[in-house]
């Protein structure tokens, strides 16, 4: 497999758009690059399950980022509905606790036991959002200690519940892999190519730095979607990762 393909398959492009038409413009612009596509709440609340099904029909890997966080019974039902869409990955907040995380997996199993041929999606626990700084976590949210310690605690909870991995910032990947094993998947937003606007993110690294930390997937939105030439932006990110490895 070409090295470009291997890198592209580990880049999740965040389709943070107001509607399906705008998102489809980007999908068209990136056609032929085998990246993962991430559908988040803005697009899903507007374009709905149909948009997700369309991406799957086109053969894309899809991460449905709806960050479920509710009572276990509701999360179980939500996970069941999500699994029926045939997505490859979805996420739930680890802060919901072990019973809620286990309920998400029960929802997946329930859908798979009755659905026709849906593949098992990876279920990923959100730890501390990458927009959260140490000060915000301690002083506003009221969680004491370091961000790293909180992320590791959430990751441990996610693993104990049987999840496939976690969303965290690239700064925490080495510790997560050390504590929970190389096979415990890390999905890392908070990615900014050198010189890109950081915006509301707090804990960031460049794409090449994130992969050097050993992350499995990077999530990238605005550095691609806000670019005047999104395809060139993605290609230059891929080239930067390959260049850093040579
Ligand atoms: O679960 C996520 O995808 C997520 C978790 C997190 O901690 N931080 C985070 O930024 N995200 C998502 O990753 C994407 C990052 O987008 P950009 O900041 O534009 O690159 C957005 O769609 C966020 O919703």
TrEMBL record:
The keyword Repressor does not apply. Its EC number is 4.1.1.23. Keywords: Decarboxylase, Lyase, Pyrimidine biosynthesis. The keyword Lyase applies. Signal peptide: none annotated. Substrate binds at residues 16, 38, 65-74, 130, 192, 201, 221-222. The active site is at residue 67. Homodimer. PANTHER family: OROTIDINE 5'-PHOSPHATE DECARBOXYLASE. This is Orotidine 5'-phosphate decarboxylase. It comes from Paenibacillus agricola.
């Amino acid at each position: 497999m070409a090295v470009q393909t291997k890198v592209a398959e580990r880049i999740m492009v965040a389709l943070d758009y107001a509607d399906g038409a705008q998102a489809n413009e980007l999908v068209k612009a990136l056609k032929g690059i085998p990246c993962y596509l991430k559908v988040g709440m803005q697009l899903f609340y507007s374009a709905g399950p149909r948009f997700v099904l369309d991406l799957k029909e086109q053969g894309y890997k899809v991460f449905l980022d709806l960050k479920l966080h509710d009572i276990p019974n509701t999360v179980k039902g939500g996970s069941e509905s999500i699994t029926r869409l045939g997505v490859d990955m979805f996420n739930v907040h680890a802060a919901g606790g072990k019973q809620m995380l286990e309920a998400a997996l029960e929802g997946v199993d329930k859908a798979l036991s009755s659905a026709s041929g849906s593949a098992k999606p990876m279920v990923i626990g959100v730890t501390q959002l990458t927009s959260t700084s140490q000060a915000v976590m301690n002083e506003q949210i009221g969680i004491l200690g370091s961000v790293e310690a909180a992320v590791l605690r959430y990751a441990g909870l996610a693993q104990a519940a049987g999840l496939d991995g976690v969303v965290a910032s690239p700064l925490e990947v080495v510790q997560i892999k050390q504590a929970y094993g190389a096979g415990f998947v890390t999905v890392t937003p908070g990615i900014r190519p050198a010189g890109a606007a950081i915006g509301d993110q707090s804990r960031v690294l460049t794409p090449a730095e994130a992969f050097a930390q050993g992350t499995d997937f990077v999530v990238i939105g605005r550095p691609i979607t806000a670019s005047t030439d999104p395809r060139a932006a993605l290609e230059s990110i891929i080239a930067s990762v390959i260049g850093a490895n040579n």
